[in-house]
Amino acid sequence: RAKDEGRNSFQLYEPAMNARSLEHLAMETALHRALPRNELQLHYQPLVRIGGGGLEAVEALLRWNHPDLGLVSPADFIPLAEETGLIVPIGEWVLRCACEHHRNWREAGRPPLRMMVNISARQFRDEGFVAMVGSVLAETGMPPECLTLELTESMLMEGSERAIARLDQLRALGVGLAIDDFGTGYSSLAYLKRFPIDELKIDRLFVRGIDRNPRDAALVSAIVSLGHSLGLRVVAEGVETQAHLMVLHAQGCDLAQGFHFSRPLPWDEFVAVCCSGS
Ligand code: C2E
Ligand code: MG
Ligand code: MG
Ligand code: MG
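Above: inputs. Below: predicted complex with magnesium ion.
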């Protein structure tokens, strides 16, 4: 009888569900250990000025080197990190690590470079978030204008008034603010006007077809105009080909990021690649 056999017999009754929750639990346990065991690392992808060439910024992208599974994509563990709240310490580690690499860049006397760091909804809502950003800036000697935080439309739209207040606090620290994956969420244009942001990153979903599909091209062109009319810089994500780049150039888009320039790379490789070509 299940009852007599104790808790472990639960799996006899719901094998499918239990296999899934065991897997979930194993991932959660492993994720708890990822930080203390140094299994997290950042890869870096350049953002390049369109037309003028040249490196303007770099985005830090999180990777988890799982002991059994190898490199796990952020799409596969950030939702779990959000759900468990682990994203708060992990996000702090990401910010500190990115700022330390940037110090390494400055100390080598390299040209100005903005560091872009992704922030999750749970982090942004966390009471200590603004203070945490402030202390990491201070501890790493990071010039605030060199840091841009990437937020998403949905996290700004939920509780918009509170979100605007928090954006103002971040602005007061002197950091830049970008909306990531623009076009995939539900921004109200009325709020967009009120968000104190600097930059829009057009989601790669729209960029993919711009050289072949007039509708994609029209959408990207409209986002570029919208961004510029609000005084924002516009970045195209997912630029994979010269043809993409040519259309974006004609449309007046400011910055491009994508495999056409570089895949995300470990810091040392990023520095080697980006500083050899220029
Ligand atoms: P994102 O911030 O929109 O990052 C861009 C994603 O597109 C990255 O995926 C990047 O590797 C990929 N990508 C760049 N260029 C191209 C291209 O030309 N073609 C294609 N097909 N893909 C391209 P990645 O690294 O797997 O990250 C996925 C998402 O995970 C990120 O999307 C971001 O939302 C989230 N993420 C990554 N790092 C962090 C982090 O440190 N904290 C948080 N909260 N989220 C992160
Ligand atoms: Mg991003
Ligand atoms: Mg994006
Ligand atoms: Mg994204």
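Confidence is low (pLDDT under 50) at residues 1-6.
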